[in-house]
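Thread: "does anyone have the structure for this chain?"

Original post by V.I.:
We have the sequence but no experimental structure in hand. Need at least a predicted one for the grant figures.
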Amino acid sequence: MAMTMAEKLFSRHNLDGTPVVAGDILTARIDGAMCHYHAAEPMMEAAEQAGFKGGLPRVWDPDRVFVLLDHHQPALSQSLADSNAAVRREVERLGITCFHDAEPGISHQMMADYGLMRPGELVVGNDSHTISYGAINSGGIGITRADMFYVLLFGELWFQVPTSLKVVLNGRQPNYPIAKDIILYLAGLYGDDFAGSMSIEYSGTLVPQLSIDSRMCLSAHGVEVGAKLALFPYDDKTREFMKSRTDKPYEPLVADADAKYEKEIVLNVDDMPFMVAKPHQFGNVGPVSESAGVKINQAQIGSCANGRFEDIEIAARLLDGRRVAKGVRLLISPASQQVYLQCLKAGLIEKLVAAGAHVITPGCGICQPKVGFISDKEVCITATTRNFKGRKGSIHADIYLGGPLTVVAAAVAGKIMDPREVFSEL
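Reply from O.Q.:
Generated one for you, tokens below.
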């Protein structure tokens, strides 16, 4: 029976030991559980509601629960400091071995940095962007905190096998990141629910050219277009990425050549313009020309979608010898300490600071109303994940989404512009 990657993933993890296909319901074995700053809720509140006085009595496997205190490191308030302290106590009491505490960064990037999820595994997390693990051929699925409570106790959870959508990307990778433009283009063309509850499976001549950074951007944004999974094939780039991060064995997912897909989308990126999502929806997308001339107050590069080395490198490369426009605040946030260190070693941070950028602590704050608030009637263009009202503070502000190249072009010009009109060297 020919299978998609999603069908193979769930067949491999089916506790009944039998193959499953799209639409089947199963109870699946979990390889890993990622808990971030909400860890206290399944460990304590849900446990007490279930009758476990004093919190979760145990975890099914202390070596397979990964707790990473992201979003709010360092703590931004007394209440967050108290919450972090409660998680520390629970981690110690439960004997959890993998705990990244006083390390600023985004949990999903840190999971990749430290090789905590591997190709072919089924890993759940109490955050919607857990889907980004598909970039390295791993089945990452975001779950509720109530579901996480069950997983922490038993190491299993029920699922319905999703139907699969084949997205074929063809064309040539230019010398700058285009992953954000790809997903925005697709959302603009097919709607921001075009992959509703499905597994996106990427293929095509462009895929071997895409860096792991670009793949993580596309996989992370799977949730913004409604997907349950967003999987890339295992290849030489995946192998090299994993080689330096884990020595544990794994079994990659490979779709059968004659696997059946619910539908197929084909995109040639050579014909694709730079894209921008306009306020206040991920699918409100058009070519950058439709938003050209909109004056901006703030520009941002960061998050689990675009806070990686290649996103920051393009900004530093093009800002070298240039300045951020007067009146514009350019915020850059590496996705993790490891990415930050990579940027430091490459000399990127000095170029950014010299050009007038603000380099801020790694983490999720740049994507939320945690740092870099914007005021009424201000305009922000950002290479982060979402642009709905209030995402950066005021509900009377406008947020545009674009790729890192589009963002840095706007930061230099003081207004949204086609990057090719700002940077003649492209």
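V.I.: this helps a lot. DSSP finds 14 helices and 18 strands in the chain.
O.Q.: and Residues 28 and 107 are 23 Å apart (CA to CA).
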